[in-house]
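Retro notes, item 3 of 5
We never archived the inputs for the MRU complex last cycle. Fixing that now. Sequence and ligand:
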Amino acid sequence: MDDQHDSVRAVYWEDDALHLLDQRRLPAQEHWLQPADCQAVAAAIRDMVVRGAPAIGIAAAYGAVIAARARYRAAPAAWRDPLRADLETLRQARPTAVNLAWALERVAARLEDLRGDPEPALLALARDIHRQDVAANRRMGELGAALIEAGSGVLTHCNTGSLATGGYGTALGVIRSAWRAAKLSAVFADETRPWLQGARLTAWELVRDAIPVKLVVDAAAAHLMQSAQVQWLIVGADRIAANGDVANKIGTCTAAVVARHYGVKVMVVAPASSVDLRTPCGADIPIEQRPPAEVLQLAGAPVAAAGADAWNPAFDITPASLIDAIVTERGVVLRPDREKMTALMS
Ligand code: MRU
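Structure as it came back at the time:
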């Protein structure tokens, strides 16, 4: 990659191993892990070594390759059922991002007609899922950037960039493309409490890729929009329900409500693998609850009064009615509803 605005990759397969950039340590350290077995891949997903909906789907697909190797070596004639159990272990690592289940369903379907060593076929599939994700991101980048008028300011939430995907990013991919097209007057990123994906990851990625970024605390969204410094809120999705409701990082709905109030447009950027027509609406999406310690501590140090508890949902639901555009690699849906989402996916 020699593109100065797209230099980061956090997941790759090389020398028969999965390599994951440990996102818990960014921006202080660039430390790479090579999970040795399926349990280690599931733990890496659960503990946020790798995070972001598309990236965890890709990591799980490579995790299935590691599991297949171990199961075939242990029992060349009876690997299938134990491998199916491994896929279930991976699927349970995080509940909200549907890309994880989507990738593992593709792996399970591929297993059906496989005979002999499953590793080569599953590696080809994982590489395919990875490649297709990057291609989808580039397409969404073009489609999303086309919606943005020159001179616009944008606000993004969480991290949806190369770190959260196979590469390039979804919402951050649109921002990359729009920046390259010289359409953006300013890029603002929410710091994204409690895990600080914006401050630690989005800022790291954008600085590295020579795209100027201004961090704001999450609570600054209203003032930022009221003072007309941004024209678009651009976010990703962990799951898009059949009616166009969107699950994304906690705080997305808050920003979208404020955006509607101040006439700022809301763009959700996600690959078709994040669209789940089997989930009728946002209320049916399981919301991951994470440990209170993520709220009560900062980098391991207590910030709350001793004895306080915390409620820590990792995601919220933005109703379709607050969304101006859903951008996927299949096309753009303006003012999404059930009918338009069904048409997009058919
Ligand atoms: O808890 P995380 O960091 O995995 O949450 C990530 C998000 O909410 C992203 O916005 C979403 O997965 C889309 S990433 C392209």
